[in-house]
Design goal:
- The structure is a homodimer of 598-residue chains.
- The first copy, chain A, is of the alpha/beta class and 598 residues long.
- Chain A has two domains: 411 residues, no CATH class; 119 residues, STAS domain (Transcription Regulator spoIIAA, 2-Layer Sandwich), CATH 3.30.750.
- Helices cover 60% and strands 7% of the residues of chain A.
- In chain A, the strands form four sheets. The first copy, chain A, has a five-stranded mixed β-sheet. In chain A, strands 1-4 form a two-stranded antiparallel sheet. A two-stranded antiparallel ribbon of chain A has the order 2-3.
- In chain A, a hairpin with a 2-residue loop joins strand 2 and strand 3.
- The radius of gyration of chain A is 31 Å and the shape is elongated.
- The first copy, chain A, starts with 10 loop residues before the first helix and ends in a 13-residue tail after the last helix.
- The N terminus and C terminus of chain A are likely disordered.
- At the A-B interface, helix 19, helix 21, helix 22, helix 23 and helix 24 of A face helix 19, helix 21, helix 22, helix 23 and helix 24 of B.
Chain lengths: 598, 598
């Protein structure tokens, strides 16, 4: 330990040294290069990487196109916005990313969170992108990533489940082409579906379900190969693997072709995506004022519309991205700060190019990984492919049936629902299962942001209750004819446990039949104790001594001695150290304990 | 433990038994008698108690009269309200009280909290009394007293200090008889004093300071006696003790007499209390509507005026009363629930008799204790004395100079400021000192309620941070030529520590020069672990095993086995039990550990 080291420099020197170290870190080329990882990987780029990065880029790009259009649809934005959000974040991420696998772009959950603002004006989407980027960048620069520790696994899982349910329910409208609004929450979407169920259109429904079934079958249809197979079979298997990976694009292409052919024959049985404005976006800062219901909102008023719930977007963006990065990092450690800088930069930059908030996408990251990407260059290739599509193919996208996109979204959503955590929490921690359920229910009924807030609040209450009722391990035994009670105080005894600890100690010592005990507090693993707890414990100890019990405080950290002796100087005589209880218990008790009479 | 007992009844039986026990408790005469303690002490009342209870009642009553008038003045209410608040709560408390010493009545802090509502309309005072009683009663009935555990000692002390400063500063106006408002906060009161310093009136100032000096001198002027003294000296000493205890009444009486004599000579140099409406209060429910600025406020709007800050009154009332009860209980245990029922009933009942919120008063309780009270009958005698005063002497109270009352309040306030806690926190816990300071500063500058809220919030953050960074005790040693690392996991590992614990374990195991370790997690004192922590720890352990380390989890509670094996079934093989490390470390490692290859 530092504090026991006689060579430890004085505090002034230490502070100076620490400041110098920070300065060196800030100015050093190496630490700047670590913050811009492309300067590390690009100079070492090899030609053999190119092929694999390109294949991965194309595969992911073919999924990014339909998903981009679909997620823009979820947010209620023009389809090209979803594509722009795959392009520009993808390019920026290739520069700042420290994780080769993660693919950045619009995600269904962020789109769902954005929808209620876009319902007022699409301008909110571009501003949301900038603000999201700004908040994430701030968190990254100020090293506030530890705040995410306070969102527990059950809350994240519950939130994801609620989001998947809400997004799927909102797709029922497109899948069945029913009338009415898609709804802000799971409940309202389901209610809308039920009230408008008579307006179901058979052809859209048929196409939607056909898309879902094809996607589900393709997802599971791997051709197994063994080393004894001939070359032809291996080639077929590998080709099929690429087909499977591009299944989203394929389903979209087939239904697009179908819709186009029927259109040429004068039939339009499906609701189509409609005109997509192709070409490059309008570059420029996001709008800082907007018009809602003929009223001009200033920047301050737009911020007011986002409110505190608006913070859900940057929060969810980081949670998604870091969770994904960790899932694919294997045994590499993920640099959360760098990831925040990268995602923040992506959103900040792309808000200048008509993009919606973007973050790491689970499905596309998994695809990227499976396609064998080697460097973040894959992300850049993907962006280029989407850029080509939006400039050259925008007119063809007119014919993409909405029911197919709804099918793609629903299949993607089912895959992110993870129910194994429910089974695990059921067997191991019912209270955490309640947190999960609360997050899901509030998320589904009130809104996704409120689900996170409710879950995090209940988690905080759980933690507060458990710190107010710390476990004091208690043992009863006899040494040298003394009746001993050993109580172990461990960890940090927080202020809220003051009443409980003192009451516990009294009850254990005074409720036993023997009238005189030796009570030993083992404080070897006690790291910190708040003032109120020390004060109440001292009162209890003095009380025990009045009842003629002998009290020892064993192996208390010398740093904590002062706290107790300040409250009651005589407690000094109860402090004992040593490796075993026998070492001090044999001695005459007067040497250690003190009987206080009033 | 119950769960290991083969005779343990089935769950259904247990629930039934517990319900029956609750029913018996609710219906049993004994438990009802415990809730109405007068049914216990009154039948055993002895004549010899009467004299001592009567003396105590008179002594406390003589202080209650000037303090009641003074505290009504702090709240901005007519003087008789302060007296009524000593009478009716005192009578009700005698019925429900389990602590003989505590004296209930208006207190300076509650009056200060009430002042801003009374500034709108005095009707708020009576409604506040009813609501305060209702909230406290609910907390008592619902056994929610543990909520008070979350207000730490430093916050209570900081709040008391801020309240004493604010109340003293607000008295500067009366002490110096300056112009302007007394101010809602310490800062505004001091600013008002400085801006109006030219309006200081010399006679009031002189009388005020004279009162303060006399009170301070009397407080310290005990006549010491020794067993060898003659009877005369002992009698003088005892009589003087009664005089000292009635010093507040005495000072008021002398200045009242002075003001009256000067008035008879045509001089009115002092600002006087003015007309006090004597006699009994108007009995009836508190007003549920009121008129503020010619606008009628409904009950809902009155509740709106109290808002969430209004909850500070019941909170402070309980905190004061329970803290006082504990301070004078000696080694008796205070029944917090009973105390809440008593204080709740006092306020609820007295709100029907034009009273302001009341709670245990520190100065008068100390006086009651020092006067040798034997039963809560003392409280009833005090109430009767004040009742006599308000019916017979109300007209005389006209001449009490305000500067004298201000002096009495300031002396009382100085005595409740306790600065020893600052010294103790300075040496033992700087972060708690910051909480204390924050509570004082916010309390003085923004408002007392906000001081408590700020302090409690920072305490909660401190606790959250410490539960996110639990201490893992680490030891390195060699057994049978194995390099061992022992890590002790203790207490409850809460969800927020998930990242930290896993990172800590990895860094300790992987950053050491030796390449292969035996890593032992001592979980004997681990009581609970949240799902996220278990999951991350499991991932870290599997990673350590990949790096060819051998991992043991030692003495893990069997209840927690399932949590780990659910996440990774192979972890089952790392669980070991036994009294010493040697018992399992000598065995071939394959028997316990597992090397997982992917």
């Amino acid at each position: 330990m530092d504090s026991d080291d006689p060579r430890q420099p004085l505090l002034g020197h230490r502070a100076g040294r620490s400041a110098r170290r920070t300065l060196v870190k800030l100015c050093g080329l190496q630490s700047w290069r670590r913050r811009i990882p492309i300067t590390v990987w690009l100079p070492n780029y090899k030609l053999e990487y190119l092929f694999r990065d390109l294949i991965a880029g194309i595969t992911v790009g073919l999924t990014s196109i339909p998903q981009g259009i679909a997620y823009a649809m979820i947010a209620g934005l023009p389809a090209q916005v979803g594509l722009y959000s795959s392009i520009f974040p993808g390019l920026v991420y290739a520069i700042f990313s420290s994780c080769k696998d993660v693919t950045v772009g619009p995600t269904a959950i962020l789109a769902a969170l954005l929808a209620k603002y876009v319902a007022k004006s699409p301008d909110f989407a571009y501003l949301a992108s900038m603000l999201t980027g700004f908040v994430i960048l701030c968190l990254g620069v100020l090293q506030l990533g530890f705040l995410l520790d306070f969102i527990s696994k059950p809350v994240i899982s519950g939130f994801t489940t609620a989001a998947a349910l809400q997004i799927s329910a909102a797709q029922l409208k497109s899948l069945f082409r029913i009338a009415g609004a898609s709804g802000d929450t799971f409940i309202s979407a389901v209610i809308n579906f039920i009230t408008n169920i008579k307006t179901v259109q058979p052809w859209d429904t048929l196409l939607g379900f056909a898309s879902i079934i094809v996607l589900l079958i393709m997802k599971r249809s791997h051709i197994k190969t063994s080393p004894t197979d001939n070359r032809w079979r291996v080639t077929v298997s590998n080709t099929w693997l690429y087909v499977i990976r591009a299944r989203n694009a394929l389903v979209v292409f087939v239904s697009l072709a179908l819709a186009y052919i029927l259109y040429r024959y004068g039939l339009t049985p499906f609701k189509l995506t409609g005109t997509i404005k192709g070409g490059l976006p309008r570059f420029g800062p996001p709008p800082f004022t907007t018009v809602v219901n003929n009223q001009t909102l200033s920047f301050g008023q737009m911020l007011g519309v986002f409110g505190a719930e608006g913070l859900a977007m940057p929060l969810v963006a980081i949670l998604e991205s870091i969770a994904i990065a960790k899932a694919f990092a294997g045994s590499n450690v993920v640099d959360s700060s760098q990831e925040m800088l990268a995602i923040g930069a992506c959103n900040l930059v792309s808000s200048f190019a008509q993009s919606m908030p973007a973050t790491g996408s689970f499905t596309r990251t998994a695809l990227n990984h499976a396609s064998g990407v080697i460097t973040p260059a894959g992300s850049a290739f993907k962006a280029c492919l989407v850029l080509l599509a939006v400039t050259l193919l925008a007119e063809a996208f007119y014919f993409i049936p909405r029911a197919t996109l709804a099918g793609i979204i629903m299949v993607a959503m089912v895959s992110i629902i993870d129910l194994t955590i429910v089974k695990r929490l059921w067997t191991s921690s019912k209270s955490e299962l309640c947190v999960w359920l609360l997050t899901v229910i509030v998320g589904c009924c009130v809104g996704l942001e409120y689900g996170i807030a409710a879950g995090a609040a209940v988690d905080a209450i759980r933690a507060a209750v458990s710190s107010a009722r710390p476990h004091v391990h208690c043992e009863y035994f006899k040494i040298n004819n003394y009746d001993c009670i050993l109580m172990r105080l461990v960890g940090t005894l927080s202020y809220s446990s003051a009443e409980y600890v003192a009451k516990f100690v009294r009850s254990r010592a005074l409720d036993t039949p023997t009238s005189r005990h030796v009570i030993i507090f083992d404080a070897a693993l006690l790291r910190a104790i708040d003032f109120g707890v020390a004060e109440n414990l001292t009162t209890a100890i003095v009380d025990l001594q009045k009842h003629e019990h002998t009290v020892f405080i064993w192996n208390l950290d010398p740093k904590l001695h002062g706290l107790f002796t300040d409250i009651h100087p005589d407690l000094n005589r109860t402090f004992v150290a040593g490796s075993s209880i026998e070492s001090f218990i044999g001695l005459p008790s007067e040497q250690h304990s003190v009987n206080i009479t009033t």
